Amino acid sequence: MTHAPLDGISDLSIEAIDHDGVVLMALTGDIDITNAGQARAAIEEQLNNHPIGIVICLAVSFLASTGLSMLGEVHRRTQQAGIGFAVVATTRSAQRSLQASGMDRILLLHDTVPHAVEGLQKATASERPDLAR
């Protein structure tokens, strides 16, 4: 039996950490219609800071279609802005949601956060030597 929080909003924790210009955003809990806007706003805040890349680490127990849609929007916006974007799905439920929706064929997925961060840093360094650190 699952218990919904009394306020009706699923638990979601968002932490952002800068790794030499690549922002790691760790999302834990659930992403559904009650809090996808919260995740979207946090990611947009980071996009507005114009990082060289964003890595979304999905350590979530539930990833609803609204969360998948949000990831698609972020992918589109990062491409338009020339910002690197990668996703790490650390839980089986997040991996299944990405696979079932076909998002695993659209998004740049990595097995680990260090690989994702390093991959975006290397890609940026080769594409934009002026940003290499």
Automatic annotation (TrEMBL):
Pfam families with a match to the protein in the record: STAS
Keyword terms of this UniProt record: Membrane, Transmembrane, Transmembrane helix
Listed InterPro entries: Anti-sigma_ant, STAS_dom, STAS_dom_sf
Keyword Transmembrane helix appears in the UniProt entry: yes
Domain STAS residues, every copy: 12-120
Domain of life assignment: Bacteria
Residues in the signal sequence: none
Annotated family: Belongs to the anti-sigma-factor antagonist family.
NCBIfam families per UniProt: ant_ant_sig
PANTHER family membership: ANTI-SIGMA FACTOR ANTAGONIST TM_1081-RELATED-RELATED, ANTI-SIGMA-F FACTOR ANTAGONIST RSFB
Protein name from the UniProt record: Anti-sigma factor antagonist
Organism: Lentzea pudingi
